[in-house]
Amino acid sequence: MNIDSIKRGIVLDHISAGRSMDLYRYLHLDELDCSVAIIKNVKSNAMGRKDILKIDDTISIDLDVLGYIDPGITVNIIEDGKIIEKKHLSLPEKLTNIIRCKNPRCITSAEPSLDQVFLLADREKGEYRCMYCETKKAARYT
Amino acid sequence: MRHLIDIKDFSVEEIHRILDLADQMQAAPERYRETQRGRILATLFFEPSTRTRLSFESAMLSLGGSVLGFATADSSSTAKGESLTDTIRTVSCYCDIIAMRHPKEGAPLAGSFKSEVPIINAGDGGHNHPTQTLTDLMTIRREKGRLDSLTVGLCGDLKFGRTVHSLIAAMSRYPGVRFVLISPPELRVPEYVLSGLAARGIPYEEVESMEQVMGDLDILYMTRVQKERFFNEADYIRLKDTYILDTDKMKKARPDLRVLHPLPRVNEIAVQVDLDPRAVYFKQVKNGRYVRMALITRLLEER
Questions:
Q1: Counted domains in chain B
Q2: In contact, B119 and B108? CB cutoff 8 Å
Q3: Which residue in chain B is spatially nearest to A136 when comparing CA positions?
Q4: Do B85 and A111 touch (CB under 8 A)?
């Protein structure tokens, strides 16, 4: 299968196989006017199988969201058909308004204007805890 | 500007400096009688309290300062629908320091982001109660002469017991401390507290029987099963009398055991135990006033 290389845009590489559609939704790529290629189950020496997303435009991407969903992703920024920047993601230390605390006793349940903030409590386990009440939330895909 | 939201906001050394100052204040209260004249403490209690609110007010008055505030959410603008953060932002314009209690977990932290003055967490739901912990540490240090190398039993409602969570956080920083967690399965210590102990390799055991561990303990920290934390009253009624400390159980304890309780007590400690010299919960109440005097002084010094 051939998909043209892009001149200017973003390639999200090393997406865990099967997660590209989740990313597509989280990053609201359906709202873009430019071409977006979702390539699934690409053979990979390191990963066995991986997904790739190619976006034919430079858009602002929330790397915290991306790192939370799939910290193994590589973000390649393309200009003039060449990679000008390569970003390796990791679980972010802090998630703001990405996930919600479900503890009904938490102050966030009573004060909707408060930011929903989760702090990384255990990088190995990918565990986050609500900054206010310490309720645990496992990282989405670990 | 410093706040006290979680007991871990202060280092062990900072806590010891507060306890030292509290000891000095108790020994010579007249020396501190005018030290906060002209300063105002606001006590914002969105949830009922007797001891904590009055001890904060007594502490500030003993330092020559003044107090204002409210004792229930009904008597504040919360009843009109005002947000917590707006209330804090407003009140912090009228005072020099705030002590607040709130039924929701994390409310004092949320308040601290909008406050122009130091915030003291005087209890947030079933989460934390750091000033009770300062009181507990002062009491344990006085009674046992140390805060390390102790077997600490905590008994009762360990799930919603905010004093328990803060005390474990504080005591787990001392070497040689071991915890014995006595509760029914429904009221076990929350996962976030246990995972904190496990991550640091601090020894603890969870048991259901009080009798089997009485002889092992240096400290027994009794707690009330709190009616106000249950969504279902039937669960409260089923669990409320699980543990009752009486004179028979005290016979199984060491002669140097000390029994603490954050109070109020309902019936988890028989009144006959009050006569046992190992019961120190009313000394704890007295210590609470001085440790809050010391805390207010330190936070206002750093403002």
A1: 2
A2: yes
A3: B192
A4: yes
In CATH, the number for domain A94-138 is 2.30.30.20
B200–chain A Cβ distance below 8 A for any pair: no
State pLDDT tens for residues B240-255. 888 999 999 999 999 9
Q: Is the peptide bond before B264 cis (omega within 30 degrees of 0)?
A: yes
**A115 in Cβ contact with A97 (< 8 Å):** yes
- Beta carbons within 8 Å of B153's beta carbon, 6+ residues apart: B179, B180, B181, B182, B213, B216, B217, B219, B220, B221
- Known catalytic residue at B31: no
Sheet holding B258-260, edge to edge: B204-207, B178-182, B151-155, B219-222, B258-260
Q: ipTM score of the complex?
A: 0.89
Q: Is B3 a catalytic residue?
A: no
Task: Domain of residue B189: give its range.
Answer: 130-284
B85 is catalytic: no
Q: Average pLDDT for residues A29-55, to the nearest whole number?
A: 93
One domain, residues B106 and B152: no
A62-92 confidence digits (pLDDT tens): 888 888 888 899 999 999 989 999 999 989 9
Q: How confident is the model at residue A124 (pLDDT cuts 50, 70, 90)?
A: confident
CATH of A9-88, one of 3.30.70.140, 3.60.21.10, 3.10.100.10, 3.40.50.300: 3.30.70.140
